[in-house]
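Before surveying the methods themselves, let us examine one representative protein, pairing a chain with its fold in token form.
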Amino acid sequence: MTAPREPRARAVWPLVRVLLSTQYAYMLEYRAEIALWALSGVLPLIMLGVWSGSGAGEAAGFTPAMLTRYFLAAFVVRQFTVVWVIHVFEEDNLQGRLSPYLLQPLHPFWRYLAAHVAEQVTRVPFVAALLALLFLLQPSLLWWPQRADVFWGVLATVAAFILRFLLQGVIAMACFWSERALALERLLLIPYLFLSGLVAPLETFPPGVRAFALATPFPYTVAFPARVLMGAEVNLGAGFLGLALWSGLFLILFLVLWRAGIRRYSAMGA
């Protein structure tokens, strides 16, 4: 039973290595643009200044140290859960580049996933530089999580990225039926900003709004990984279960819509 799998695994690993190295080299050509992308993700740091000066955090039970840790953790989580697959998929679909991808034995979305991973690796030094500059300007913000928090926080961040990738992949499937599927992703921007915990901790919301937010996938993309990374009391089992369930749901939707969309696809070369 295990013998056929070993050669298959040995054949897959070179493909993964080549795909990731190629995408990484490609991303290095756009490192200046990636630096701008990293700078565009400083919203949690801006919100840290807003909440620190308002006193509303203390009213919600957040000490200044807790607010600092939360928004710093949210900044890190946000940087490594950025997903833009719908932008490139819509462009590839409209310009006909999807057709030759479909002729290859590799699913096109593995290519997009590799590009995202490569972009995140390229982003690491820029994020580290931003944090170093912040700590240099404000030494009081300096904080380092515990090893266990780092481990579970990184794991939760990776799971949150997968969830966001699958969610945007489902939205990208609308490209098979519409030339403006990107508008659907923009419609999700507002609920993502407010329900994910990016602009405010969910604990500061009214109970009804908080319950509604927790019934959506958005808190698992920022709030849960950030709280794990900052070392707050959190139910790891429930959080990872929620990530798994939402990811499984979006994976099923993606596969169903992909098959239906491919049957509809009629671009030249498909």
